[in-house]
Task: structure prediction
Amino acid sequence: MTGQVVTCPVDEMNQPRGTKDAKLRVPPGDTEVEDLFSRWAAQLTTCRKFAPTARNYTAARLMATVGLRVNEARHLDLADLKWDLGRLGKIHVRHGKGSRGSGPRERMVPMIGGADRLLRWYVEDVWGHLDDNHTRPGAPLFCSERRNLDGTKARVGDDVLREGLARAAATHLPAWASRLTPHVLRHYCASQLYRTGMDLIMIQELLGHAWIATTMGYVHVHRSHVEDAWIAGQARAAARLEGLI
Result:
């Protein structure tokens, strides 16, 4: 009546409709993603710059495995890997995206889907090629090749991680060249977890969504409730016709 939109703090199921239509991001399939990362991993043995390539590979795999945003990944510190928490360890995401400009939303992301093995390999075999002082407070997990004014390694930029993924897609998955972005990998993560049986509430917690409706938009490609309802309707119609006959 007043023209003001009031958000109910209790209803976390129904997100208020935004002013813009969300872009539909259909992620690649399991086979395509596995092909990308297996070929990218094989490239690590022959590439000219091992450490930067391995850094970009690791960040992209985290996006596809545990759904990190590119900005969340680049802001991780070495100390944000909590190996002793949970069954597999957890990642302390301190710079999660806030809902409607509410500021950073922290969360703990479990190292599922092999993320624990990936990060152990990266820290033990790759990180030392990029930085040499793991005891320095605030040492970034994903370092840049550039240095700060005090001589310490700088934090990698999100543009570097985006470009690294784009180059890998163009080389190893040309059908997705220019279409495979960090956010598409995040959609892939949600869809893959839903398809393997994880419920929406758990996926919402993993991705850091404030609204379950947002999470549903990430997995709709693989939901089959429309097809199931159509099949059930056909079965009911056939049963009625059989009764008439």
